[in-house]
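Q: Convert this sequence to structure tokens.
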Amino acid sequence: MRQREYIEKMRSVLRDRTASFGHCPTFFIETLGCQMNAKDSEKFAGILKEIGYEKAPGEFQADLVLYNTCTVRENANTKIYGHLGQLGAVKRNQNPRMRIALCGCMMQEPDEVQTVREKYPFVDLVFGTHNGFKLAELLYRMETEEGQVIDVWEGTDMIVEDLPAIRKYRFKTGVNIMYGCNNFCSYCIVPYVRGRERSRTPENILEEIRFLASDGVREVMLLGQNVNSYGKTLDPKVSFSELLSKVAQVDGIDRVRFMTSHPKDLSDDLIETMASNPRIANHIHLPLQSGSDRILQKMNRHYDTARYLEIVEKLRKSVPELQITTDLIVGFPGETEEDFQATLDMVREVRFASAFTFLYSRRTGTPAAKMPDQVPDDVANERFQRLLALVQEVGREESGKLAGRTMPVLVDEMNRQDRHLVTGRLMDNTVVHFPGGAELVGEIVPVFLRESKGFYYLGERS
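A:
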């Protein structure tokens, strides 16, 4: 209610700015990082639209620019500073009334906030990951106070929802079920900038999903840094499998996805829930990170390859035609050629449909950054290329197994390269292109999968 009061106050401020500008003020949001950030940006866009801003075609044309930052890798920070340098010149030379705001994970780091304070004084507003729901209030402060407004919380136990949002797709969206992370993988900064785990109540989540279904949403993706930990902070406790089962029963929701799932606490109950409900996607993203038990221990992952393979065996036995995707890191400190070969062996054995492959990035503030035996760049790069080649080879084979069959496809959009085609996804998340028009967008239609092209199918509507 407090934030809705500030939305009204900002409307009044914006009316005055419209009169002085001679046009309705515009906004542009640049989002870096994960799907949690993307979901946050949908909320920011909804609040700005309700205040009265219109969307600008690009950052240099906007009156308000908001960078929703990522800090998983230090080069993400460098990228933001590069953007700021360009934007500062635009503000100085072309649009002195431009407002610039920074938020997200990078802004949870005190050193980065200090850098912005000292070197980028033209930035008007800074806030972090814990108080994004205060956007309207922070904008009001920005417009009514002198100097930079910097409002970064160290942590919070608050969860504030029910604010406006603009979905990228009208028929599918993500739903945050929890915030924060308790895992403290040795290479990862996320727990330090996103805070400790806290879960939304199932009643609140289900209320949101019922509303989304009534508004035309057919597919939801349940989001959390580790969804398997959902409910541990609630009283009474609720497991993720229990929540997933309830979500899959909401009328109007045809598909339910989730990410990310940590192998250390993926339960048999979750596998049973996936197997027993046809609305739950036959796809799981299950980050492996390394095929070496020694490296997994150094990463503080809390499982070994035997446990990972046990989970994969149970999943594949219980969920027909399951597609498994993963994350893999190359060049973690101390990684030997033997360790790397173990990762290649796991790719061959598990047969991932696809994998996000990463060169280890030394992240200041994490335990791994201080570890000895950092792998030389040339060695890591050579290994990365070998891994990428294998992942693509296996992925092409795994992703083409449904060729010759007719399967339901949720159409996402008109194809960006060929306007005679539409693009959608199977239940297992594989991309399909087939002839069709804009009237199919948002519909689930049967498609004959005529040909596999490696990581996507070409099809024909049945």
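DSSP finds 13 helices and 19 strands in the chain.
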